[in-house]
Protein backbone atom coordinates (compact mmCIF):
# COMPACT_ATOMS: atom_id res chain seq x y z
CA UNK A 1 0.00 0.00 0.00
CA UNK A 2 1.48 3.33 -1.01
CA UNK A 3 1.70 6.54 0.99
CA UNK A 4 -1.14 8.30 -0.82
CA UNK A 5 -3.55 5.45 -0.03
CA UNK A 6 -2.53 5.57 3.63
CA UNK A 7 -3.08 9.34 3.69
CA UNK A 8 -6.47 8.93 2.01
CA UNK A 9 -7.42 6.25 4.54
CA UNK A 10 -6.40 8.47 7.46
CA UNK A 11 -8.47 11.35 6.10
CA UNK A 12 -11.46 9.09 5.40
CA UNK A 13 -11.38 7.31 8.75
CA UNK A 14 -10.68 10.53 10.64
CA UNK A 15 -13.57 12.43 9.07
CA UNK A 16 -16.02 9.61 9.66
CA UNK A 17 -14.72 9.09 13.20
CA UNK A 18 -15.09 12.77 14.09
CA UNK A 19 -18.62 12.98 12.73
CA UNK A 20 -19.57 9.77 14.53
CA UNK A 21 -18.25 11.01 17.85
CA UNK A 22 -20.30 14.20 17.63
CA UNK A 23 -23.47 12.33 16.66
CA UNK A 24 -22.93 9.62 19.26
CA UNK A 25 -22.43 12.19 22.02
CA UNK A 26 -25.70 13.89 21.05
CA UNK A 27 -27.49 10.54 20.96
CA UNK A 28 -26.13 9.50 24.38
CA UNK A 29 -27.20 12.86 25.83
CA UNK A 30 -30.70 12.45 24.37
CA UNK A 31 -31.03 8.88 25.68
CA UNK A 32 -29.86 10.01 29.14
CA UNK A 33 -32.44 12.82 29.18
CA UNK A 34 -35.17 10.45 28.00
CA UNK A 35 -34.27 7.80 30.58
CA UNK A 36 -33.74 10.07 33.59
CA UNK A 37 -35.71 13.19 32.74
CA UNK A 38 -32.64 15.30 33.62
CA UNK A 39 -29.78 16.79 31.66
CA UNK A 40 -26.57 14.75 31.77
CA UNK A 41 -24.48 15.58 34.83
CA UNK A 42 -21.10 17.27 34.78
CA UNK A 43 -19.00 14.41 36.18
CA UNK A 44 -16.20 16.72 37.38
CA UNK A 45 -18.56 18.80 39.52
CA UNK A 46 -18.05 17.87 43.19
CA UNK A 47 -21.74 18.64 43.81
CA UNK A 48 -22.77 15.73 41.56
CA UNK A 49 -23.04 12.47 43.53
CA UNK A 50 -20.27 10.02 42.67
CA UNK A 51 -22.71 7.28 41.69
CA UNK A 52 -24.44 9.55 39.17
CA UNK A 53 -21.11 10.78 37.75
CA UNK A 54 -19.85 7.21 37.35
CA UNK A 55 -23.09 6.08 35.75
CA UNK A 56 -22.89 8.93 33.25
CA UNK A 57 -19.21 8.27 32.49
CA UNK A 58 -19.84 4.56 31.90
CA UNK A 59 -22.96 5.14 29.79
CA UNK A 60 -21.32 7.78 27.60
CA UNK A 61 -18.13 5.72 27.23
CA UNK A 62 -20.04 2.64 26.14
CA UNK A 63 -22.27 4.57 23.76
CA UNK A 64 -19.48 6.47 22.06
CA UNK A 65 -17.12 3.48 22.05
CA UNK A 66 -19.65 1.17 20.42
CA UNK A 67 -20.52 3.72 17.77
CA UNK A 68 -16.83 4.24 16.95
CA UNK A 69 -16.31 0.48 16.69
CA UNK A 70 -19.23 0.04 14.32
CA UNK A 71 -18.27 2.99 12.12
CA UNK A 72 -14.61 1.93 11.92
CA UNK A 73 -15.70 -1.53 10.81
CA UNK A 74 -18.11 -0.01 8.27
CA UNK A 75 -15.37 2.30 6.95
CA UNK A 76 -12.95 -0.61 6.55
CA UNK A 77 -15.58 -2.65 4.71
CA UNK A 78 -16.39 0.23 2.37
CA UNK A 79 -12.70 0.87 1.73
CA UNK A 80 -12.20 -2.76 0.74
CA UNK A 81 -15.27 -2.71 -1.50
CA UNK A 82 -14.32 0.52 -3.29
CA UNK A 83 -10.52 0.26 -3.40
CA UNK A 84 -10.24 -3.49 -3.83
CA UNK A 85 -7.57 -3.76 -1.14
CA UNK A 86 -7.85 -4.27 2.61
CA UNK A 87 -8.01 -1.07 4.63
CA UNK A 88 -4.72 -0.01 6.19
CA UNK A 89 -4.47 -1.06 9.80
CA UNK A 90 -4.38 1.50 12.54
CA UNK A 91 -0.94 1.67 14.05
CA UNK A 92 -0.82 0.59 17.66
CA UNK A 93 0.65 3.17 19.96
CA UNK A 94 3.04 1.90 22.55
CA UNK A 95 4.36 3.72 25.57
CA UNK A 96 7.84 2.99 26.77
CA UNK A 97 8.93 4.16 30.17
Describe this structure in words.
This protein is mainly α and 97 residues long. It is 70% helix and 0% strand. It contains two helices and no strands. It has helices at residues 3-36, 50-83. Helix 1 (3-36) packs antiparallel against helix 2. The two termini are 32 Å apart.
Features of the shown structure:
70% helix; 2 helices; elongated; 97 residues; mainly alpha
Shape: elongated
- DSSP helical segment count: 2
The proportion of residues forming helix, as a percent range, comes to over 70%
Strand residue percentage: under 5%
Category from helices, strands and their pairing: mainly alpha
User: Using only CA atoms, what is the Rg?
Assistant: 18 Å
The helix/strand order is HH
Distance between the termini: 32 Å
Report the count of strand segments: 0
Report the major sheet.
none
Mean pLDDT: 87
Poorly predicted ranges: none
Mind sketching the topology for me?
Layout: H1 3-36, H2 50-83
